[in-house]
Write a structure and sequence with these properties.
The protein is of the alpha+beta class. Helix content is about 35%, strand content about 15%.
């Protein structure tokens, strides 16, 4: 929590989020959805409008990786970037 407070003090516009907020932020930034759009991890990973299942061996950087109640972004090399609520950061 102290780290978060310090980062926000340094830059109040710093992007931060919970797990689904990261993906929603990407979608908003690239104008794939409206600025008011919001969704949970489960909504993003189960709706065919936003995602589709693929095999682990077929992951490419930028693909979403999700499980019940959580979502992250595959960045390559076997790594997934994920936010775990505001208190824990990225």
């Amino acid at each position: 929590m102290e780290w978060m407070i310090e980062q926000v003090r340094r830059n109040p516009n710093i992007p931060s989020s919970d797990c689904s907020g990261m993906e929603v932020g990407y979608m908003r930034k690239h104008k794939l959805v409206s600025n008011s759009f919001d969704a949970t991890a489960n909504e993003l990973t189960t709706s065919p409008k936003y995602s589709m299942p693929i095999e682990k061996k077929d992951l490419r950087p930028g693909d979403w990786v999700g499980k019940n109640g959580h979502i992250g972004t595959y960045v390559g090399g076997g790594y997934v970037v994920e936010f775990y609520a505001g208190a824990y950061g990225c």
